[in-house]
Amino acid sequence: MTLLRSARFPAIVLLAAAALGLVIANSPLGPAADEVQHAYLGIPGVFELSVGHWIADGLLAVFFFVVAVELQFELTSGQLNSARKALQPAIAAFGGVIVPIGIYLIFALGTESARGWPIPTATDIAFALGVLAVFGKGLPPALRIFLLALAILDDIVGIIFIAVLFTTDVNYGLLGLAALLVVAFGLLSRQLDTRARVPIIVALVILAIATWVLVYLSGVHATIAGVALGLAMAQQPALRVRHTLEPWVNVIVLPLFALNAALVPIPQVSPSELTPAFWGVLVALPVGKIIGIGVFGWLSLRVGHRGQAPALTIGDLLAAGALGGIGFTVSLLLSELAFSTHPELRDEATLGVLAGSMISLVLAGLLVSWRARHFRRHPVQAEAS
C-alpha cells in the first residue's frame, strides 16, 4: 500500500496507461476497444451509460472527491488557510490560467476550435508531485509549498470551468434536491464517531450515490457531485476516507481514465492539416504555463516582501511553470467536454494534451533537477527559504 500511495507511482501508471491507450487505438485492436468504450451498461430503460461515460462521469467523481477533501484541508488547516498564504500562489495561478488561454486563442480564435480555450488551464497534481518526488530531492520547503498551492488553485479553476461552462439545460429541481442530500451527507458525516458507525457509513454511501445520480440527471457534470461531497464531509472522517481511497484512485480510477481518454487514433495527416485545437493546446500548455506562472509569479514576489529578499527566485518559478504545464487528467476531461459534439477536434485536442504534457514533463524534470542540484550545493539558501 505504501507504493500505491507514493508520489511517483500515480505519475508512472498514468503515463503507462495513456501510452497503452494510444497504442491500442492505433493498432488492429482499435475498433474492438471503441466498441467496448461505447457499450452501454446499467439498468435498461432506467439508467444506462456507456463504458466511457461510466469512467469519465462515475469513476472520476471519486477522484474529484479525493481532490476536494485535500482542497478542504488546505483551505481550512493547510497552506491556503489565510489570504496572506494564498496571495502569491494565487497571483501565479492567475497568470498560469490567462496566458495559456491567450496563447490558445491566438491559434484558434474565429474557428470551431476556439471553444477549447479552457483545456490548457489545468495542472495535474499527481504528475506534478510525481516529478517532484523523482527529481526534487533537496528543494526547499518554500518551493514545495508554493508548487502544491499553485496546483491546488489550478484544480479549483478547473472545477469551476467544469461546473460553469459545461452545464446545459439544468434541471434546478433535481439540482436543489442534490444540494439537500449534500447537506444531509455533511451533517451525517459528523456523527461517525458515535456507536452507530456501520449504519451511518451505509447511509453515507447511499446518500453519495443518490447525489451523484441527481447531479448527473440535473445536467451538471457528475464529477461536481464528488467535489461537493468532499467539501461537505467532516474533515477528520474525510481525511480517513481519502487515505482509504487514495490507492484505489491511483491504481484504478486515474489509469482507467487515462486509458479511456487516450483511445485516440493519430490522424494520418501532415502537420499543416492539423487543426488549431491541436496546436493551441500543444503550445499553450508548456509555453503558456511557463510564461504565465513565471511572469505573474515574479510579480507576486513583489507583494509583501518590502525590505526583505523574496523566498523564491525566477529559476524556481520557471520550474513551477513547467510543472504547471503537465495538464493531463483535468485537461483530458476538459477536452472531452469542450468538444463533446466534435469528435475529430476532441481527438486532436487530446493528442495536444498528451504531447504538450509530455513536453512539460521533460522540461519540468530538467528544471526541477537544476533547482534541486542548486539547493543541494547551497544548503544555506534552502534553509533560508
UniProtKB/TrEMBL annotation:
It catalyses: Na(+)(in) + 2 H(+)(out) = Na(+)(out) + 2 H(+)(in). This is Na(+)/H(+) antiporter NhaA. Belongs to the NhaA Na(+)/H(+) (TC 2.A.33) antiporter family. HAMAP family: NhaA. The chain crosses the membrane at residues 51-69, 90-111, 117-135, 142-166, 172-188, 200-217, 223-241, 248-266, 278-299, 311-334, 349-368. Gene3D superfamilies: Na+/H+ antiporter like domain. It holds the Pfam family Na_H_antiport_1. The gene is nhaA. It is a multi-pass membrane protein.
